[in-house]
Design brief:
- The protein has 419 residues and is of the alpha+beta class.
- Helices cover 57% and strands 16% of the residues.
- The strands form two sheets. Strands 1, 4, 5, 6, 7, 8, 9, 10, 11 and 12 form a ten-stranded antiparallel β-sheet that branches. A two-stranded antiparallel ribbon has the order 2-3.
- The two termini are 48 Å apart.
Length: 419
Amino acid sequence: MKQKVMSLAVAAVLGMTSFSYPANAVSNREIQQKRNAINNIQSKQSSIQSEIKKADQQIEQLKTQQAQLAAEMEKLDMEVSETSAKIRNVSQTISDTKQDIEALKREIAEVEARIKKRNELLKERVRSLQLSGGIISYLDVLLGSQSFGDFIDRISAVTTIFEADKQIIQEQEEDKALKEKKENELTSKLTSLQSDLQELEQLKQTLNKQMNEKEQLIAQLKQQEQSINEEKLSLAEEQELLEKQEAAIRSQLQQLIIKKQQEQAAQQSPSSSNHSSNGGNVPPVTDGAFMRPANGPITSGFGPRGGEFHYGVDIGKRAPEVPVVAAADGVVFRSYYSSSYGNVVFITHMIDGQIYTTVYAHLESRLVGEGQTVSKGQIIGYMGNTGQSEGAHLHFELHRGSWNAAKSNAVNPLSYINF
């Protein structure tokens, strides 16, 4: 199987016209450096996979907490519903009681009217007694009879009057007692119901407060989950870039091994792929590990900018078409459209045993694909204004090591390239 892979690799390398070899034979040191670079990338990939696994576990924990809170929310919803029903029932009872009070007021008015009439009658009796010179004895009435029949009649009249007085007084007392009893009873009932209603309303407010707290907590958990998901996506993107970078270095390693086995040097002029109608705008290949990636002024440097950190340099566009070239020999391990970078090319380089990564963002177009070997000064695209860009320019990053989402390996390109 390994021989088959090697044969395919040899065939692929022999068929590549853009591959360039150094003039001297490949050394074991160069091959070991590539292998060390691959081991370093694999170590980083393992670390990222652990971080992704940890993020997955955190997401599962958050989902479990959300499920528990959702169950509590459902229970609270039922309690709120029951409390609301009780409030409606008590409110209806209070309304009915108020109607009873209105009816009672009418009854009391009637009783008061009867009491008032009796009071008037009793006042008349008192006035009659006063006019007759004092209290008339029932015995005087009886002794004033003219005959036995008159005596009997007077006894009957006195008895009737006496009983009538007693009944008036009794009815008066009963009506007064009834009035007071009904008023006290309904007042007490209304006070009790109003107290119950206040208690239920406070309970409902408490439950609503709990619901709001739970909803806020769920919102926080969702935000945490979103943050972890974003971090996971960032890790996944970083993992993908590392995989592609590893593949690119493996490709370089295979080419070095094949070259060593063949013991021959194949050299391609760095400028052979630079000839185009825009030759005047192509920056000249310079000495040193890296060259400037495009002609134009530096419009924004490396460092803090607008409350954030700018991890590269911006090169302004000063011509209708500005070619962008590879800053050093390397392999394209990512060439795609990014929502932030726009059209972007990532190139990995191995220089003196050190991995470097260069990034060329906001391109109008890309001329190289993933896995392609490029030479220093080779045109890889044209300056543009794609992605999150405010005006045509090239955003160029240089990383001493592998690219990562935190951009912890980013260095100032001006320290490596004479612009």
